[in-house]
Amino acid sequence: MINLRGITQIYPGPQGPVEALRGIDLHVTPGEVFGIIGRSGAGKSSLVRVINLLNRPTSGQVMVAGRDMTQLSDADLRAARREIGMVFQHFNLLSSRTVFDNAALPLELAGMPRAEIKKRIDPLLDLVGLAHLADRYPAQISGGQKQRVGIARALASNPKVLLSDEATSALDPETTRSILDLLRQVNREMGVTVVLITHQMQVIKQIADRVAVIDAGRIVEMGPVVDVFTRPQQDITKSLIDEIVPQELPAGVLARVRSLAARLEPGASGQLLRLSYAGEHAYEPILSHLIRELGLDLSILHGQIDEIQDQTFGSLAVYASGNMARIGAAIDYLRANGVVVRTVEVTG
Ligand SMILES: Nc1ncnc2c1ncn2[C@@H]1O[C@H](COP(=O)(O)OP(=O)(O)OP(=O)(O)O)[C@@H](O)[C@H]1O
Hints:
Layout: E1 2-11, E2 18-28, E3 33-37, H1 44-51, E4 59-64, E5 67-68, H2 74-81, E6 84-88, H3 99-109, H4 114-127, H5 143-155, E7 161-165, H6 173-190, E8 193-198, H7 201-207, E9 210-215, E10 218-224, H8 225-230, H9 235-241, H10 251-262, E11 269-278, H11 283-294, E12 297-308, E13 311-322, H12 324-336, E14 340-344
Helix pairs in contact: 3-4, 3-5, 4-5, 5-6
The protein binds adenosine-5'-triphosphate.
The site of adenosine-5'-triphosphate has 13 residues, from strand 2 and helix 1.
Organism: Diaphorobacter nitroreducens
Domain ABC transporter: 2-241
Function: Part of the ABC transporter FtsEX involved in cellular division. Important for assembly or stability of the septal ring.
């Protein structure tokens, strides 16, 4: 659906050119929710705005629904943009227009007759849950409701792609969840491909199928959300995930590990393991196998079970003690059963 190849974006700046995007290759497949995450200044807005050519890239190719956007005439570009809806962090509603008229704006600009506009917008206001507020003005509705108007307006032209530029950053956590649920519903029921940018892993966790991590204008990591959560490779990814799955163990847990290590029986070994898994695996039977078949002692020190969309996702810290070779066999067994295992050395 979207193919970006070799995208660079260089802005002129008072202290010389700013390289906001430094060679981005990205492929978004039809029907997916694709998340782009990064810290402030990483290049997220520049990237999302390249997709509908609100920003013309300095170099590179932008293919959307089979069309090379950089090669279109102004008239063709306007037509192509109708297939790409966009939602903004600050909603961008016109204060002098009602909810209905804000949602209808793209159709009015395209010259659609009023009766047809009504036929298109009424069901959309129903979908976003605002049919009863159609005659209100933006100042008379909440932030979450304003974003619902923004989504209805973005869907008015029946787009194939919806771009979301930090659509929930100005909203509280509960409203964020309901807006993300709505975007997911639009994706599933209308088959609209969604590309969203955010600085919050919580947003990625709730809605995205795949995620790309962007840092200093480059994509540094990309994959299905579950894989990136269970096997983050880059420090930036680990720090972004940290708000959901703490990457460092609390000091109290490390103190317990030291005291367990000090109490090992003569000749026994001990190893702190960080385990994570996703999907239908469950820890309990796997851990009982380690205890029963390999004769290991396992102390569960820390852990959490969460959900990424509909998949269970767990992370656990355990201290395994016993025969050194058997600890090695246990790690092999865990990995063979789809558990991601990290060994952690505890010093001091
Ligand atoms: N119009 C512009 N002119 C000059 N520099 C710009 C312009 N727009 C963005 N930049 C610079 O390009 C880099 C990337 O900015 P961009 O807005 O794409 O990042 P971002 O990840 O969306 O950040 P934020 O989350 O803070 O919005 C930053 O260094 C920014 O200062």
